[in-house]
């Protein structure tokens, strides 16, 4: 159970979420994400000099009654590893809860996959929302030149399954092409 005092209001800014009482802060660096990227040579080269933060998120996870809502703010830094854009690890919701993403700023793609291997990619634009149905793993990719900042809201008591995505990867990747980002098949998944 979080120790946030309800009700409350706050702005859609990282500083506001950071200062929420009881917030979980998660910082993911390249070293936490090594197998996610296609270009392992590029991963090694970057890690030889630095271990950059790829994204951070601040979340309030609710574990009480079914009527509660968990929520968080994610900030993915702009950049690429080789030709592949910075992205989140990605996960399934074990207990099948749906989720809403609301884009605050920046541009990206939300990659989705079912356990049967069906895939989708949804555009993320400022002010846009994406609906993630339960049963679809989700990974967010920052394809822009600025931070991608988005709010996420999901039901309480959701267990996050990172292992399946870590083991099998996503069937699609987002790479820089001659005219911008392209969604390609992941031949390593
Ligand atoms: C939680 C929701 C997001 C992600 C966050 C980081 O259900 O989908 O808040 O946790 O965007 O992604 P990941 O894959 O590292 O949890
Ligand atoms: Zn989620």
SSE topology sketch:
Blueprint: H1 14-18, E1 24-29, H2 40-49, E2 53-60, E3 70-76, E4 80-81, E5 84-85, E6 92-93, E7 99-105, E8 108-114, E9 119-124, E10 129-132, E11 136-142, E12 148-154, E13 160-161, H3 163-168, E14 172-177, E15 180-185
Antiparallel strand pairs: 1-2, 2-3, 3-12, 4-5, 6-13, 7-10, 7-12, 8-9, 8-11, 14-15
Bound molecules: D-sorbitol-6-phosphate and zinc ion.
Q: Which H/E pattern describes the elements?
A: HEHEEEEEEEEEEEEHEE
Bound molecules: D-sorbitol-6-phosphate, zinc ion
Number of strands: 15
Q: Give the class from helix and strand content and strand pairing.
A: mainly beta
CATH homologous superfamily caption: Jelly Rolls
CATH architectural category: Sandwich
Share in helix = 10-25%
Query: Briefly, what CATH class?
Result: Mainly Beta
Q: Measure the end-to-end span.
A: 36 Å
Radius of gyration: 16 Å
Largest sheet: 6 strands, antiparallel
Order of strands in the sheet with most strands:
1-2-3-12-7-10
Beta-strand percentage range: 35-45%
Structural domains: how many: 1
Low-confidence stretches: none
Count, helices:
3
Instruction: State mean pLDDT (0 to 100 scale).
Output: 96
Molecular shape: globular
Q: CATH topology, anyone? A: Jelly Rolls
């Amino acid at each position: 159970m979080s120790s946030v005092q309800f009700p409350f209001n706050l702005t859609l800014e990282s500083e506001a979420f950071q200062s929420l009482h009881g917030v979980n802060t998660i910082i993911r660096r390249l070293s936490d994400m090594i197998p996610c990227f296609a270009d392992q040579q590029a991963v090694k080269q970057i890690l030889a000099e630095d271990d950059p933060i790829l994204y951070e998120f601040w979340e309030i996870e609710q574990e009480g009654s079914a009527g509660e809502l968990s929520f968080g703010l994610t900030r993915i830094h702009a950049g690429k590893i080789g030709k592949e854009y910075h992205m989140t690890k990605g996960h399934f919701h074990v207990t099948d809860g749906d989720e809403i993403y609301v884009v605050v700023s920046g541009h990206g793609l939300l990659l989705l996959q079912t356990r049967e291997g069906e895939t989708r990619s949804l555009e993320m634009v400022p002010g846009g929302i994406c609906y993630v149905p339960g049963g679809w793993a989700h990974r967010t990719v920052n394809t822009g030149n600025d931070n991608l900042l988005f709010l996420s809201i999901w039901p309480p008591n959701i267990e996050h399954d990172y292992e399946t995505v870590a083991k099998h990867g996503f069937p699609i990747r987002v790479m820089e092409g001659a005219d911008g980002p392209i969604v390609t098949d992941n031949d390593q998944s």
